[in-house]
Amino acid sequence: MEMNGPRHGYPGAKKTATRTRLSDTQHLFWAAAPKQTVYGASAVHSVNPSINLSAGNPDIIYAPTLDPSALTCIEMTTAYWGGGGKGVYAWDWCAAQPGWRQGIAMDANFLATYTRDSMGFPAYQVRDVQTDAATNRWTSYLFNYNTNSWDTFYSSANTSKLSESGGGWDAFEPYTNTNPNTGEGYYCTETRGSLWFVGGLQYQLTSGGAWSSATSANSTIPAPSTLDPNYGGCNNPSLQFTVNTPNSTYWVSND
C-alpha cells in the first residue's frame, strides 16, 4: 500500500537544505552513524502519543530521525511540535526545494496499524533503502502489523547525490529555545518522564545486500559520559543517554 498525500499538518520547517541552524534555536544531536556509505537502514523507533507540546512551545523534537547516508533522498522522522502536533514524516533531500513531502498522524489508526509494544512503549518498524542504484532511487517503508508486510511510505530519486559518500544517522534531534521562566528548553519541562529509543538498527552495507546489525565496528555513537547534560540548551541534568547494545539499541530519557 502506498500512502497518498499528507494526513496531518507538517512539523515546523526547522530543517533546511543546508542543515544550517536557526539563530534563535539551539540544537541537540545524539546519534548512531555508520562509518561508511550505506545503502539502507532499518530500525524500530519509539513513539510517544502522550507528548503534547503546548501551542506556545517553539521547540520541535525529531526523535528518532533516520537518514541512512549522504546518498539518501529521504529522512524518516518521528516529530513533535507545538499545539500537540505529532506524527511520522518523510523529508525529501532530493527535491528541487527540500522539504516535508509525506506524513501520517500519530493517531489511533496509526498506532493500531504500525506499532506494537517495545520496552513498554509503542514503536514502529521503518526502512529507508536505495531501491535503484542507477537512478539513486530511495524508498521508505513502514511495517504494517495488520497485513504482516511492508507498506511503501515515500520514494524519491536524484543521481547528483551519487557523487557523495559517508554520512547518515539515527538520531535524537531537538531544536530547542531556552524558556526564561525555567532556564531550560521548553520541551524539557513538557516531556518529563518521556523516553525516545532506537532498537535493532541495521544497515545494508552494499546496494541490495544483506542486513547487518549496527555495531561498534561499522558505526559510531558518542559515549553518554562525554555529553554535557546542558548540551544543546536543554539545561536539564535529568536528560539521560544510554547505549544498551552497541550500536543498535540506545535511548534518551527525560527522567
| Total strand segments | 19
Strand content: over 45%
Tell me the distance between the termini: 38 Å
Query: Uncertain runs with pLDDT below 50, 5 residues or more?
Result: 1-8, 16-23
Order of helices and strands: EEEEEEEHEEEEEEEHEEEEE
CATH architecture: Sandwich
Mean model confidence by pLDDT: 89
CATH C-level class is Mainly Beta
Helix content: under 10%
How would you describe the overall organization of this protein?
With 255 residues, this protein is mostly beta strands. The protein has a single domain, classed as Jelly Rolls (Sandwich), CATH 2.60.120. It is built from two helices and 19 strands. Strands 3, 8, 9, 10, 11, 15, 16, 18 and 19 form a nine-stranded antiparallel β-sheet that branches. Strands 1, 2, 4, 5, 6, 7, 12 and 17 form an eight-stranded antiparallel β-sheet that branches. Strands 13-14 form a two-stranded antiparallel ribbon. Strand 8 and strand 9 form a beta hairpin. It is globular and about 55 Å long. The N terminus is likely disordered.
Secondary structure elements and pairings:
Blueprint: E1 26-27, E2 30-34, E3 40-46, E4 60-67, E5 74-81, E6 85-92, E7 99-105, H1 108-114, E8 115-118, E9 121-132, E10 137-144, E11 149-157, E12 169-176, E13 178-179, E14 184-185, H2 186-190, E15 195-204, E16 211-213, E17 219-220, E18 239-245, E19 249-254
What's the short story on this structure?
By secondary structure, the chain is mostly beta strands. The chain is 5% helix and 46% strand. The longest helix is centred in the middle third of the chain and has 7 residues, at 108-114.
